[in-house]
Amino acid sequence: MSPAGPGGRPDQSPSRCQVSRGLAVALLRLVGAELRKIATLPSSWIAVGVAAVGSLGITLLNSSTVRGAVEKGQLDAVAYTTPAEAVFSAAPIGTVGAVVLGVVAISSEYTANSTGAGAGRQIAATLTTAPNRLAVLGAKVLATVLSVVGMAVIAVPTSLVAAYLAFGEPIASTDLADTAARSGGVAIYWTLTALMALAVTAVTRSGIVPLIVFIVNSSLVSVSFLLTRLTWLAYYLPDAAGIRLFGRDTLGLFDRALDPLTGGLVMAAWTLTLLAASAAVLTCRDA
Amino acid sequence: MRERPRPPAPGRSAPDASAPGPPPRIRPPHATRVEVPSAFGRLARATAAEIVKLRGLPSVSVTGFATMISSAAISGALAASAPPGSPAIPLAVQGVAFCQAGLIALGVLAVGTEYAGCQIVTTLATIPNRTLLLVGKATAYLIGAAAMAAAAIGAGLAAAWAILAGWGATAVDWGPVWPMVGAAVYLVAMGLLAFAVATLLRSLIAPLVGMSSLVFVVSPLLTGIGQYGHWLPDQAGALLYGQGDGTARTPVAGALVLAGWIAAVMLAAGVRFFRHDA
Amino acid sequence: MLADVTFQALPGRVTAFLGPNGAGKSSTLRILLGLDRPSAGTALIDGCQYRNLSEPLRTVGSMLEGSGSHRSRTARNHLAWIAQASGIPKRRVDQVLAQVGLADAGRMRVGRFSLGMGQRLGLAAALLGEPAALVLDEPVNGLDPEGIRWVRGLLRAHADAGGTVLLSSHLMSEVGEIADDLAIIAGGHVVAAGPIGRVTAGYASLEDAYFALTAPPQGDRR
Description:
heterotrimer, B: 278 residues, mainly alpha, 10 helices, C: 222 residues, alpha/beta, Rossmann fold, six-stranded mixed beta sheet, 9 helices
């Protein structure tokens, strides 16, 4: 809406500052709306809760097992002996939570209400509120990033604290830097996985296939790691590429995986490609 | 609180057989009156109807084909990276771990599609006897699952044979047969557990996410931490197709644990199904 | 909450069930069809509960939730499994699809149906077993004028042939045209029941009678 000049005729050329400020405000509003939508979906809270509680549980189990083995002197019965490793080997549970967050951000738009409630879908309301589909997708991406990072902020520190308490060791300063880097890495891994799930769901419109495919591929026994035994090219698949962002190869499962920086870039490239494809589909297709 | 709405049916109650006036012309005179079948006949009808329902879901056929193709691909990949002269059946059976996803999806779809929408209302109006409905659904699932498991394992075996034998160039050592049967039983049983979970949760997405996470994320994580995971259904059931877990448990013990899980969840699901409104 | 809902739907007549939103119309019908369980009391059709009927769909045809099918099924598949479960011959599927005007849409997925087509599919399922009684929840919801006139003709013919029709509706004009008997429910109680002439006696129109009978009691502080 351009301001009216004197005599009531609208000014046809707003300044660039006003346009960009207007766009930024509009985008912030959209992101706020998308965050509100995510926050009011029960699935989101269940995903965050299960990720946090599940990680904590697995961490405690890991820690008690390792501590028991260390105390008995059976160091070769366990694959690792540090608290940080106990926490990061539980990362796949957080991956599942991130996948659920990414999928429901989109699938909630396409779920039809019951016939009694008009059989409508939320996508109609979303697109009439904000007709620019790229802006809607961008806002959803940002909102999902914020939610997954929030989930990481809740899950990872609590698990770390619990692991260090369970181990009873003081924290060495070198450990701290490495652990902080790996925490950032696991947050990045979860975020990129959530965005890939979001992109695939935007194309399929139903959450079922992306959920199955991404959950099956979440852990270290996934299809990607099976294929790495066949060819080293499989290390360029997204979930295998980013594994060194947080994982250290204690079991000898991914000795030829890409180093953290390369792996992170490959994963980011996959994510951007999938998001670009989903953007193309969203803008071209009917709602 | 008393509640008695009464829409009666005209002229159909036995005491009115001698009622005066012309009989209602609802049913054309040439329509045959079908005899009410026995209990087995009613179960057969319910099962046949549930099979028609499963056949009419495109997601079921897609799941079946995807499971077959992925089983073949995974067994082929394993065979390609295995040393020459390896037995074929164990390679095919190793792919079973991933075929579970398809069978779990089948079990969840059989029940979940009733609750994703309002089809459960139609189903209960058609077959008001809830015992019959549940048993018919489970039977239809078992028939479909047996077919899907057989197809998947067969496809895996064919792919493993093709790679190992070089398309018939060399003879292949098949290996023991019983893991193959155990694998089929395991797949059908895991899908039945998913069926029970979906009946208990009365939804489509939650049991799918829950079972997939249990089998593909939680269970592998617990494998590396001592004995905690041994009582999980999939780890106990893995004994059926020869994946030893380092303890002295036999396949029969594993089958009993798995059956125990299925029975427990089915019981809870059945109680909820009978007591709950549609 | 329903309390002492008692009325009759007689054969050869169309009984309309009227009431405000949340009065208990759908709850009553669901209890009648055995879908919900009342905390006290019984609902009987011809002397027995719905779940004890030996051939439910041949006795009572019902439509409660539009099409009543999962979105990925075809219309034909939906009717086929219902026919299979009830022992109804397969040829009825084609007959009933033609009767409701969906003969060309048999192989279309229900998810792509319009609201009116979904209603027609629900009616087709109700008619599949050639039942003597029809129980319908808002049958003309979403239908175009041609569809409304068709439903009116269908229900009238069914009642004239001796069948029983029980429908719940919000449309005064439709109810006025088609119903012989009324049962008006408000706040969980039946506030009026009987032939339409008797219920609306003393009021200028059906609408006036409805609003007068369902108005909350004056000065009632419960």
